[in-house]
Each structure stands twice: as C-alpha cells, then as structure tokens.
Design brief:
- This protein is an alpha+beta fold.
- The chain is built from 10 helices and 13 strands.
- The strands form 2 sheets. The chain has a 7-stranded mixed beta sheet, with helices on both faces. A 6-stranded mixed beta sheet has the order 1-2-3-6-4-5, covered by helices on one side.
- Helix 6 packs across helix 9.
- The chain starts with 7 loop residues before the first helix and ends in a 14-residue tail after the last strand.
C-alpha cells in the first residue's frame, strides 16, 4: 500500500464503519469517528471534552515541535481551548541521549508557548522503527463544538496563511541536500522558518467567536485534500478557485525543484474556516493572520476552477511529502 494516510474510501470501509457499527453507544459521545473529522467530543456537563490524536512520521527534524502543533491544531479546529497533551515516543536503537533531550525540549517548549500542559506518556527504544516516531493525544474543552461537517450550502470557504506550509519547512530541512545549489540559500533559510508558523490556535478561537459553521486544519493531502474532506464530512459539494489559493514564493520554488504539487502538500499552520459571512476576515487581519476566500460550499459537485475550467476535486491520495524520493 502507499505510504501515508489510508485513502478515505478505504478508511471508511474497513475502519470507521466497522468501529461505529460495533462500538457501544454512549450518550456522552457527541462526535463519533468519520472521514475528515479532526476530533472526538464528549459531553461533561457545562463543558465538552475534545480529544485528538496524531503521529509524526513524515519528518525527521523538528518532530517534537510538529507533534505538539498538529495535535493542538485539531483541538483549535473544533473551537476549543487546549489543556494538555500526552505523548508516545518510539525511538530507534541508533538514537543518542542528546537527540532524545532535543526532542523533549522542543515538545515542552512549544507546549509552553501555547499554555498546554504535558500530561504524561511513554518513551521506548525499539527496533520496530528506523527513525523517531512521536504520537500525541491532545485534550481540550469548549462550550460550543464546531465540527468539520457543519458546512451549509452557500457558505464561504476561507483559508488562512499559505498552502504547503509544513511541507515546505520539512523539505527545506530534510531535503536540504537535494535543494542546495538549486534553490537560493536565502529562500531555503526563510522556508525553514515556516516551521514556526504551524499553530492555528488563534484562528480557531476567532472562528468560534465569529460563528464558523465548520473548521478543518490542513494536514496530509494539502489544501485540496482538506477541501475534499470538508465537503465529504458535510455530504455536500465544494467549488474552489485555484487562482485564489495563496502559495508562498518559497513553497513554489522548492516544489518546482522537487517536482511536488504545493496544493497537495501537507500544510499544518493553515486552516479552512467555513462561514456564512466574511466579517471574520477583518478579525483575522487584526491578529496579523493572512486569510483568503478560496471557494464556496455547493449542493453536490466538487471541483476546482483552473483558468475557467472546472476540474473534478478528487479524494486525496498519498501526500506529496511521501512522493519525493531521496
């Protein structure tokens, strides 16, 4: 099978449907597993408890920082306030004490910036992995739950920041040897800094305040994959305008050299916010968060408009991060 997340159709058929069909039905569970949903949610009285879990497998450098942000971003996508994070670190026998210390330092440093507590976890040296694998579970709370599937026909689809953010930072560091001499050094240096812009906590809180109907952070499959998941989760259509999707110059240059599609490149740090009104754009701007209307929710068809042509928007395949050979 291809490296990366399972295709959504296969995920639904062999995992989500059997799980939902055979798991006990608890009244506390507000949000069950489904394609595109970032979190689960439990009703605990006045507050809902939000939980999410994700691993870091596609990067080598900065995995501690990435592990924190991709999980906290899921909590933010539900309009929640993150509280804590638990982590499991599976480490190869070749790793050194210094490398372990660096990973843990990155984790508690990034979590501290977000006021997120480290709740515990598990650390293990194992020959089952050839490079570090970090998996985290994040916990948060909210009073009003925002799901990925809450879109309504006619809603605006708003994207924050630029496409391929996380993938650009990973490429600049992990594929530096392939890019050196083909991409200007200052571009590579700026691209590495993209890794400092991976949090969507601010936009998640703003989205909740401005009554977003749905939110979804952009991870594997890139911006186009996230748009498809947004529509799939709501069982609706979506129309995306390719010319409106912002792509940073650094991302374009690196993807050009590597032969990667920036619109299908992992992009933690970018969020899709679905709203009836575009008033939220000014609120995001006040927080220095770039935001762009890139499409709208429709009844049925899913497409991306490129130079006036309507191209079908298909289910996301393996992320471009995994398609670049060393």
């Amino acid at each position: 099978m291809k490296i990366g997340k399972l295709p959504n159709s296969l995920l639904n058929r062999i995992i989500i449907e059997p799980v939902n069909g055979n798991s006990p039905q608890r009244e506390e569970v507000l949000l069950k597993p489904s394609v595109g949903e970032d979190c689960s949610a439990l009703c605990f009285g006045e507050y809902n408890c939000i939980m999410s879990t994700d691993p870091i497998t596609g990067a080598v450098k900065d995995i501690g920082r990435l592990a924190v942000h991709i999980n906290i971003n899921d909590i933010a996508s539900s309009g929640g306030e993150p509280i804590g994070i638990m982590l499991t670190a599976l480490l190869p026998p070749s790793i050194t004490e210094g490398e372990i210390s660096d990973i843990i330092k990155d984790i508690y440093t990034e979590a501290g910036k977000l006021n997120v507590a480290i709740l515990g976890g598990h650390t293990e040296i194992t020959d089952a992995v050839t490079k570090p694998v970090i998996s985290c579970t994040a916990v948060g709370k909210c009073k009003k739950l925002i799901s990925t599937g809450g879109s309504r026909v006619g809603d605006h689809v708003i994207m924050t920041k630029t496409a391929g953010l996380e993938g650009t930072a990973i490429f600049a560091k992990d594929k530096h040897y392939m890019l050196k001499g083909k991409v200007e050094d200052d571009i590579l240096k700026r691209a590495e800094e993209f890794g400092k812009s991976l949090s969507v906590l601010k936009e998640g809180l703003i989205g909740a305040k401005y009554n977003a109907h749905a939110m979804h952070d952009v991870t594997e499959g890139g911006i186009l994959g996230a748009c498809w998941e947004l529509a799939e989760s709501a069982d609706l259509g979506i129309e995306i305008y390719e010319e409106n999707i912002p792509v940073a110059h650094e991302t374009r240059e690196i993807c050009r050299v590597l032969g990667a599609d920036p619109l299908r490149l992992i992009s933690s740090g970018s969020m899709l916010i679905v709203c009836e009104s575009t008033d939220i754009l000014k609120a995001l701007e006040r927080e220095n968060i770039k935001a762009t209307v890139i499409g709208r929710i429709t009844k049925k068809d899913r497409c991306i408009i490129i130079n006036g042509s309507r191209i079908p928007l298909t289910e996301p395949d393996s992320d471009e991060l995994y398609n670049i050979n060393s």
